[in-house]
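User: Quick sanity check before I run a bigger batch. Here is a single chain. Can you write out its predicted 3D structure?
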Amino acid sequence: ETIHIPADDVTEGMVLFEPDAPFPVFDPFDQSDDAEKVTLPSFYLDTHEVTVAEYLAELQEGYFPHFWPDDWKKQPPPGDHALRMITYSEAVAFAEKTGKRLPDSIEFIYAATNGGTTLFPWGDRPEDLPEWTFGPVGIPEVDRLRSHPSVVGLYSNAAEWTTSWTILWPSKPEVLHVPLVMAASPHFRMVCGGSPSIVDAVPQREDWQDGAYFRVPAEIVPPPPGVGFRCVRSARPRTSPDQFIRLVSQQE
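Assistant: Done. Predicted structure follows.
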């Protein structure tokens, strides 16, 4: 089978993140000596969620995401809206086709908390996000990093798939936001960028105010109605173990 090497301009328009210190696995603000930390290689991140128009442009005409409701297939949502109702596998396929991949949850959280310095992409004030709506990427205006160009929508609009499995970490089970019995399953992946009610597309204010560092396990099929995705690309080819995310203790 032919292997297509992505063009050099794949990262054009993406934002480069270059973590310069081990990053805590659970609470990005926990800098204590006993905090479990990982080395996080540099990566590029898309500035916004994949839109309806971007996704449909990669499909044959007349094809739509498998689990879209019939009325969406007859009249798709506006092209500038963040894509939702997409399975994990469909998201992976799109990312690979465009020369990218889906983020690990720790990469997502590193970006969404400004490297572990803020609760939300915009700062520490949950009240700056007065309501949660699904719609055009870049809306609301408050949800953007101080990057160049700005990364938008990391904690508003669609929640987002990551490649992280729902493996339990006994020291911090509460991070999963769900009963433990639901967590350890190959039929789930971690979703970031939204709380459980966002994943279910029924936003509840008290549910999204905890911060952008929570992960929510979500069933990969059928897809949750509030979940979309964006892509990343490693800054360097991952050809050896030290070019992947690794627990600091594994390198000692």
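The CA atoms of residues 160 and 229 lie 4 Å apart.

User: Great, the batch can go ahead then.
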